[in-house]
Write a structure and sequence with these properties.
Strand order of the largest sheet: 1-2
Number of strands: 2
Largest sheet: 2 strands, antiparallel
Helix content: 25-40%
Number of helices: 4
Distance between the termini: 11 Å
Strand content: under 5%
Structural class: mainly alpha
Shape: elongated
Order of helices and strands: HEEHHH
Amino acid sequence: MNEDILKAIHEELVAIRQLLAEANKAGPARIAPARSTSTASSYSSGGGGGGGDEVILQPTEVVPNAGDVQVHFGKNNGVALAKLSERSLSWYATEQPPRLDSSGKPYPARPQETTLRNAARTLWHQNRGTLGQADAPKAASGGAAAAEMAAVAPAHPSDEEVPF
């Protein structure tokens, strides 16, 4: 039984290596890691010196006059979102790691944090004309390779079916 599992794992790894080798031959297209999203659509913020890998989700609530919302902490305390650079705006729009209490549990988000994040997401998507769009953007060069990998990748068993 263990030999069958090891053979299946080996075959899958070989298939992944072959797909990666083919993708590298096609060009330097990057395939973004899979991320869990809590809303229907998200967009990558290309450009800006941060590498462009962060995902900007749609706001959970559209904030009217989002550019007028002021940052309430840090070096941009009191600065309106509309006055920030694209890089700073995308930072406020991305999900930040939660602060943990002494027992390791995350503190709940304060209303002003939620408002700031939603305002930043609203403004970010308004600036790109993508606010409220339910479909993800088409990848410029890595889309075909990503679609090919998804089509070839075998279905994985659920956690209950994994024998180890």
